[in-house]
Amino acid sequence: MQVRMREVLAALIVSIAAVVLPAGCPGIGVTPASAQAPIAPAPRQPILFSHKIHAGDFKIDCQYCHADARRSTYAGIPSVKRCMGCHQIVASKDGELQKEVEKLRAFSKDGRPVEWVRIHKLSGFVYFPHKRHVQTGLACQQCHGEVQTMTEVAQVAPLTMGWCVSCHAERKGPLDCVMCHH
């Protein structure tokens, strides 16, 4: 009975969203893998950090820097200490990029964190546990796009309720309201 109720509730949510939201609204019928074009420009960051170089060229796994993603609600931002684990000995051959490494080293020397500008933000009434998604094997790129190709990271997925429900329905994930809304 409970499974049937869940299916009815899921169908109701998807149906209401399809009727209430205008056609072509971002989030309805958009599968995560298709969300690649930025929906907002990349914010200016205090250090020009290239995911293309780190995750793309050097193939550093997302969870090396965002280690909290597998065990927490938040993916986390790497500490300056984590970055300096490599950059105390690794420099860039490119003069402009080396200036960015020097900025990082200055933060480290001063004992200050880098104040990154947040890119992906959900409404306060939404509970989104990164760990649950990582533990089920969902690739970071499903929500964050092909980050390993981005010089500057921008949000590519709408992260709306309809978009999330569509993904959950497609992958047979939980559709109970209380999973995301507490």
Task: Tell me briefly what this model is.
The protein is an all-alpha fold. It has helices at 2-20, 51-57, 62-65, 80-87, 95-110, 130-135, 141-144, 161-170.
What are its keywords?
elongated; 182 residues; 8 helices; mainly alpha
Could you describe the 3D structure shown?
By secondary structure, this protein is an all-alpha fold. The protein has 3 domains: 1-30 and 158-182, no CATH class; 38-77 and 119-155, no CATH class; 78-115, no CATH class. The protein is 41% helix and 0% strand. It is built from 8 helices and no strands. Helix 4 crosses helix 5 (95-110). The longest helix is centred in the first third of the chain and has 19 residues, at 2-20.
Write the layout of secondary structure elements.
Layout: H1 2-20, H2 51-57, H3 62-65, H4 80-87, H5 95-110, H6 130-135, H7 141-144, H8 161-170
Helix pairs in contact: 1-8, 4-5
